[in-house]
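Below is how a single chain appears once it has passed through the pipeline. First comes the sequence as given, then the structure the pipeline wrote out for it. We keep one example in the README because the format questions we get most often are answered faster by looking than by reading.
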Amino acid sequence: MKKAAVFGSARPVPGEPDYEAAFQIGKLLAQRNFGVVTGGYMGTMEAVSKGASVYGGEVVGVTCEEIEKWRPIEHNAYVQHVIHCITLDERIRRLINEADAGAIALPGGIGTLAEIAMFWNHVVIHPTDIRPLVFVGDGWLQTLNAFHQYQKDHLPEELPKNITFCTSVQETLECFIS
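Resulting structure:
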């Protein structure tokens, strides 16, 4: 079973729109025979894990000793397989390597941005390793447009074709599996 990495914030809680959207993405991925790989903790990581687990998908959580020293927490209850890393850098590399189907970026903060940047850079320097990177929500489009505007002399004019921006859960799955 191929796995999709899903990056996103640790802050959303059940009942909030970002949590519920992440749950739906996990559910829809599992229903299409994809497993998920997340950072393994709370927020959207938990929601995606829960959605995938409840609907029969494989759930891998990539946890990290550095994070657990900073914020004492264990992986969420829906993670079936834990890959425990020592450093944050190692964790991000494992998330990318485990995501043999591609990645979905939900709204998030600096940690999510680091994961996106590493995945995107991997896509650029390994052009034969074609995996989609789907950004969900207007926030990422605005963020990356601003980055491109101020760094345009250092970036290619066009995004790689496997990078897309979506606004809805259903659209996200369509972009991811197409």
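The radius of gyration is 15 Å.

See the next section for the split statistics.
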